[in-house]
Amino acid sequence: xxxxxxxxxxxxxxxxxxxxxxxxxxxxxxxxxxxxxxxxxxxxxxxxxxxxxxxxxxxxxxxxxxxxxxxxxxxxxxxxxxxxxxxxxxxxxxxxxxxxxxxxxxxxxxxxxxxxxxxxxxxxxxxxxxxxxxxxxxxxxxxxxxxxxxxxxxxxxxxxxxxxxxxxxxxxxxxxxxxxxxxxxxxxxxxxxxxxxxxxxxxxxxxxxxxxxxxxxxxxxxxxxxxxxxxxxxxxxxxxxxxxxxxxxxxxxxx
Length: 255
Fold this sequence. Notes:
Structural class: mainly alpha
Strand order of the largest sheet: 1-2
Strand content: under 5%
Shape: globular
Helix content: 55-70%
Oligomer: single chain
Order of helices and strands: HHHHHHHHHEEHH
Largest sheet: 2 strands, antiparallel
């Protein structure tokens, strides 16, 4: 999927462009683009004068999808995890504020945030996480279940993240030694496909959460519902393939 390791910034950018042209041909990328079109339809069907806070949070999610898709397309899936996690937080906050406007003040928590900055300026480690008093509705439970996994997988420098780094040992002619070559890009197509599938599924869950945030207007639009149904039909065989491969791999390990 990726070319040779970059020698300089120009070759790094050229390799990204090459990767994107290749990855965009994958069925999984086409699935993500279908989710992008559903976002476009959602923008078209929102209320003429929506709550600015909700619209701002919706745009955060849309921007996160565009950024993550283009970054995975450049064979850098690890760089998308933090922004995807932030999109989950944005959608969850929108649902929480819709359920109880007081949750917005709990999220702001200006006093605690100011205190944390003062502690940093004094060289102390901040204590007390702002926003912990937010009450999230049950409708966000499935979406928020991804938060911990994403944090461990790539938001922080964890062993799980390091395990995704690609490398190979190249022999040095005439010696017993070798040269450790670090590969900047994800070279396994299945990993890129998996990242795209996860991205698409999370953003479908985000859109489902925004249905109630925008008072059900999406579900009252026949075209929105048709596109949502088409995505499900297109994505199901792709998801089943991943499920079958995972079960086959587990069976092989048990032998």
